[in-house]
Amino acid sequence: MELILKDTKEIINVSKSVFNCNFNKILVHQVLNSYSISKRQGTKSQKNRSEVSGSGKKPWRQKGTGRARVGSIRSPLWRSGGVTFASKTRDYSQKINKKMYRGALKCIFSKLIQKDKLIILKNFKIKYPKTKKLLKKLNILNLTNVLIIKKKIDKKLFLASRNLYKVKVISTNFVHPLILLTYSSVLITLKALKNIEKILL
Q: pLDDT tens across 4-62, in order?
């Protein structure tokens, strides 16, 4: 499969199985759900009647007092008693196989190429870590809401993009399905593209 570099107009060959596969909507949805729900902390915790402090002794005898029968001061009906259906710490993460995860990434990259939302450059860097310099380069490419992917984190690019809400710079190690769909366009260098191709093959 042939793709064109936007800056040099060179033609590059990439794997058809990675960047030109059919979009599997169900697979992508499942992987995105799994990724989102795995970020949920699930640290909520309450005490049930066996965990709250207090004596296990019966407060008064069963009959003859005129009061309601009760077996423990830790009853959920009493003040400072345990919670009836106490929520506990829970792991919400869902297991996704590597094959499914890679398949979802292939689908997303293929869709980005089909919709002309993947901009491939031979290199993308700035001389100084200045936000104005980065904005100038992005304006030339007509990009405002963009994810920039490089093989390794570029410190100058990272510092220049920190104040920009709709611009993010990441390395290939931090690419995941959710972040690829968060931004309107994805700008990727040739080295990063080849690295991703090697991982997904």
A: 888 888 899 999 989 989 999 999 999 999 988 988 888 999 999 999 999 889 999 99
Other C-beta atoms closer than 10 Å to the C-beta of 164 total 16
Predicted confidence (pLDDT) at residue 148 exceeds the cutoff of 90: yes
Measured in residues, the chain has a length of 201
Residues 6+ away with beta carbon under 8 Å from 184: 117, 144, 145, 146
Handedness of CA 19, 25, 31, 36 (dihedral sign): positive
Query: What's the rounded Cα separation, in Å, for the pair 18 and 107?
Result: 8
**Could you tell me whether strands 146-150 and 185-189 are parallel, antiparallel, or unpaired per DSSP bridges?**
parallel
Q: Which of 156, 141, 145 is nearest to 180 (CA)?
A: 145
As beta bridge partners, residue 167 has: 146
Q: What is the pLDDT of residue 8?
A: 83
- The angle at the Cα of 150, spanning 160 to 191, to the nearest 5 degrees, equals 145
Using only C-alpha atoms, what is the Rg of the chain?
A: 28
Which residues share a beta bridge with 169?
A: 148
Q: Is the pTM of this model over 0.90?
A: no
